[in-house]
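Pilot study result, target chain (158 residues):
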Amino acid sequence: MSLHLNPPLYQAKNLSLALETLNVLGIWLEENEIQEVIDHFQWAGRFMVLRKAPLVLLDGAHNVHGITALTQDFKGEIYFSVLKEKDAPHMIELLQTISKDITLVEISSARLYPLEKLGYPIITVAELISRLLDTKEASLLCGSLYYVGEVLEKWGNV
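Predicted structure:
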């Protein structure tokens, strides 16, 4: 199963709001300038492509609203991590609507949700990176921004 690379719907809404704000301020962009932004936009840890083939996508969707926006756009293998002050059970329910193939990832934060309560296999970030290097499946990594940071650190050392 593969994930597509179209910008998620929430990014289109963000772009629309930014363009309208510029319009209100009297700043006009040419169509080619707007297209350039669309074609090259990247925010570290947000809808970030770590690898294209097979696709590995990283997104810091760390609350119900973020997971809801993300689940409107994806299908695939999911690796998820969450902090204890978040609504983890609800976030898992939303992720289950796009995949039953969910693995939880333990991070080195005292604020980590007790992942064993969520009922899915648990691995470390190091094990995740190893899996990603060997997989032929598209993967979506999402959850805590602490998780995103740990993944980016380890991915950069591969």
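One observation from the pilot: The mean pLDDT is 86. A full batch analysis is planned for the follow-on phase.
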